[in-house]
């Protein structure tokens, strides 16, 4: 398990180093638990993971309003003073989150996040915890 996490951290480093202005990269489970991180300390990564769980839940609720969609959140991008926040579905019940400074190339970030998810998506999946329903 430790080796797998180390490999994941290395892949997150590749994303962060490949996109100028990327600051924090976090992989989280649907219930807001940090699975891996790069470019941030544990406390910041845990706060981001917890906030992302709420955001992905909100996005899913909005997604159910589309009559022909499946209601699943694929990507959320928030632009705010100081930079951008990206949250992307990354396997069953797993998400990839990135904070980036102003000046980031939004298209490049989205592309690199999709590439990373495609390469390691099955490693980012998390099984449902006891008592949870599969979304």
TrEMBL record:
Domain Roadblock/LAMTOR2: 9-100
A Pfam family annotated for this UniProt entry: Robl_LC7
Transmembrane segments: none
Gene3D superfamilies per the UniProt record, alphabetical: Dynein light chain 2a, cytoplasmic (3.30.450.30)
Protein name stated in the entry: Dynein regulation protein LC7
């Amino acid at each position: 398990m430790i080796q797998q996490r180390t490999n994941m951290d290395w892949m997150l480093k590749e994303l962060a180093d490949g996109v100028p202005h990327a600051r924090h990269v976090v992989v989280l489970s649907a219930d807001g638990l940090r699975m891996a991180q790069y470019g941030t300390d544990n406390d910041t990564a845990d706060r981001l993971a917890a906030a992302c769980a709420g955001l992905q839940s909100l996005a899913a609720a909005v997604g159910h309003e589309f009559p022909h969609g499946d209601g699943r959140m694929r990507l959320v991008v928030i632009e705010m003073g100081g930079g951008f926040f990206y949250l992307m579905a990354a396997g069953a019940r797993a998400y990839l989150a990135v904070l980036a400074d102003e000046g980031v190339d939004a298209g490049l970030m989205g592309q690199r996040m999709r590439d990373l998810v495609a390469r390691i998506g099955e490693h980012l999946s998390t099984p449902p915890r006891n008592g949870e329903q599969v979304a």
